[in-house]
């Protein structure tokens, strides 16, 4: 493929990405940044965790995303009695009164499965998290004495941060599999809030989702265009040094002069970002550069998605973990301010 053909293909897909976001905005009001981050994750081929209060539009957003991508969509609800096998198959008594086994949500559509939504994942037991981890990491599953593959699969999970009873926090290894953790908040704009309450079109989520053009991003082609973006958007040596400094700052913030009020910086960090996490950061940064019409990553591309890709990969010591919500944002801000940008 010639350079001109590659440039043309990337430009065409950039137009598709813009159309995809515009279609989502027909159904989702006031969440433009979240939509843009999800678009970035889709072209990075990374899984996404959504976190937010009840009733802020997480489920509607993901239904709209699934419709815009096309392919098969499956959803499962996290409950305390959910077992790993419930993702693979379900059993019941058929009309003839005999036991029957049917494929579960993961296996039902085979390789056509493109979007899998795990609602309230923190209500599921660790055994379920373990199976989800393999599906996310390998996009494959062994069941019924054979191997199933899901080459186009993207997992979206939602974590309820309000209710803590009968919940199980996901282990660090599982959280590290998510490219991004995106906070979905109620919009601050007073006019948007008024519309969400009083405009009746927002009261019927099914009709909102139906407004999204189906298959705006052909799911079977996303892997190939993602690979093309990763190979064509470059990172200079200077940019690589900047990313390595950011990585070190997540592990040893005190060495970069980062201070938080009333915090013992010597005992704050249990583990910084992983190598996998930093590689995912750079994947997302290349996509961000592409969406911003650049052929090379600049520091602003990394900074734009740094919080969503790295914050959940920094693990605090037990003494400070209880204050994570208060500490992690100023810590990320301090890292970005302390590490010199080229």
Task: Give a quick summary of the entry.
This protein is an alpha/beta fold and 342 residues long. Helices cover 47% and strands 16% of the residues.
Report on the architecture of this protein:
The structure is a single chain. The protein has helices at 3-27, 32-44, 58-69, 85-88, 126-138, 172-175, 190-198, 205-210, 222-232, 237-251, 275-291, 299-310, 318-321, 324-338; strands at 47-52, 72-77, 89-93, 99-103, 113-119, 140-143, 146-149, 154-160, 178-184, 269-271, 315-316. With 342 residues, it is an alpha/beta fold. The chain has 2 domains: 16-219, 3-Layer(aba) Sandwich (Rossmann fold), CATH 3.40.50.300; 233-338, Magnesium chelatase subunit I, C-Terminal domain (Helicase, Ruva Protein, domain 3, Orthogonal Bundle). The strands form 4 sheets. Strands 2-5-8-1-9 form a 5-stranded parallel beta sheet. Helix 1 (3-27) packs antiparallel against helix 3, helix 2 packs across helix 11 and helix 12 runs antiparallel to helix 14 (324-338). The longest helix is centred in the N-terminal third of the chain and has 25 residues, at 3-27. The two termini are 33 Å apart.
Please tag this protein with its features.
alpha/beta; Helicase, Ruva Protein, domain 3; 2 domains; 5-stranded parallel β-sheet; 11 strands; 16% strand
